[in-house]
Amino acid sequence: MYNDPEGFDYDYPLWRPPSEGDNLIIQATLGCSWNRCRFCSMYRSKRFQARPLEQVFADIDSWGQSWPDARRVFLADGDAMCLPTDHLLAILGKLAATFPGLNRVSCYALPANLLRKSVEELAALKSAKLSLVYVGIESGSPEILKRIAKGVTQRQMIEALGKPGLSGIKVSATVVLGVGGSALWQEHIDGTVEVVNAAPPEFLSTLQLGVAPEVTQDFAKAYPDGFEFQDDLGMLAEQERLIEGLNPPRPIIFRSNHASNALALAGNLPKDKKKLLAVLAQAQEGLRPLRARFMRGL
Q1: Is 7 left (phi over 0), alpha (psi -120 to 50) or beta?
Q2: By three-state DSSP, how is residue 228 classified?
Q3: pLDDT tens for residues 237-272?
Q4: Is the dihedral of CA 180, 155, 193, 268 positive or negative?
Q5: Separation of alpha carbons 116 and 80, rounded Å
Q6: Which pLDDT score is estimated for 118?
Q7: Please, which residues have CB within 8 angstroms of residue 36's CB and are 6 or more apart in sequence?
């Protein structure tokens, strides 16, 4: 393990993907450059800013002394991909010089900011060991993308998901179950299936919708006629329709093991489709327990 550098403190709140829990986190930015998604409360308490290189370098030096054998680094906060490419390359170069065993750097990436990078820029970042980006699809439905203020169209989402692969960067994407409510759930899932089949990420996971109090009013603007949350059976129906519809041209590692999900699933698609659907059927019939509500959360 490692020890926090003496006196070191992150700018909280600090969010990272579950798979980055054991890795070093360096804050390249504070907050999210978009920060307008109506369901998301992650960075509402922060004003977005790109941290000066000298501050980022000082953090890297501090961690280099206390954790010199770090091998994986996650660049926080919400969207390091918004930074100019030369700025990112400077950070990646500093990381490589400080941590000799470094083998992977990752970050969140908004679809809109992936679109702003050329394939050549992404290839340069990949050569500097930025090899994984986490992208929130949320929904593939054109209507729901507009309602939740995601900032891209369905066509742009497909283009953004496909772009990192042209440079060798892997994509881990997430879908938010329940974001269409009980009225638009089929449209939500069908649009998502279209996006994922057109531009399959290497990894795909699901979260279940949770609307924090601080964004309740903003989320209500997405559904001015009212929003009915999906119950557990509704969420399972969304999972079922999603898995049934996914026939990607190359394999996807699929997971729904995030703590927000009622049912944890894991498999490779399309190979394990029948197995996953069988587990879902058991859950829908009450033959497989769901995660207790007090154990669910973001």
Answers
A1: left
A2: coil
A3: 999 999 999 999 999 999 998 888 999 999 999 999
A4: negative
A5: 13
A6: 97
A7: 149, 151
Phi/psi for 172 (5° steps) reads -110, 115
Can you give the residue range of the structural domain that contains 117? Answer: 18-295
Residue 30, in any domain of the structure: yes
How many Cβ atoms from other residues are within 10 Å of residue 264's Cβ? 13
CB 131 within 8 A of CB 104: yes
pLDDT at position 5: 67
Dist CA 149 CA 215 (whole Å)? 13
pTM higher than 0.90: yes
**Positive or negative CA dihedral for 36, 41, 45, 51?**
negative
Element containing residue 96 per DSSP (H, E): helix 85-98
> Structural domain tally of the chain?
1
> Is 118 domain-assigned?
yes
Strand partners, 130: 105
Closest CA to 259 of 201, 223, 207, 212: 207
Which of 120, 55, 63, 64 is CA-nearest to residue 90? 55
Tell me what pLDDT residue 1 has. 41
pLDDT of res. 142 = 98
Residue range 34-67, pLDDT digits in tens: 999 999 998 899 999 999 999 999 999 999 999 9
Query: Is residue 220 one of the residues assigned to a domain?
Result: yes
Residue 4 lies in a domain: no
Cross-strand pairs, 6: none
- Structure tokens of 197? 């089949």
How far apart CA 59 and CA 69 sit, in angstroms, is 15
Of 186, 185, 188, nearest to 145 (Cα)?
188
Instruction: Tell me the CB-side half-sphere exposure of residue 116, using CA atoms within 13 A.
Output: 13
CATH of the domain at 182: 3.20.20.70
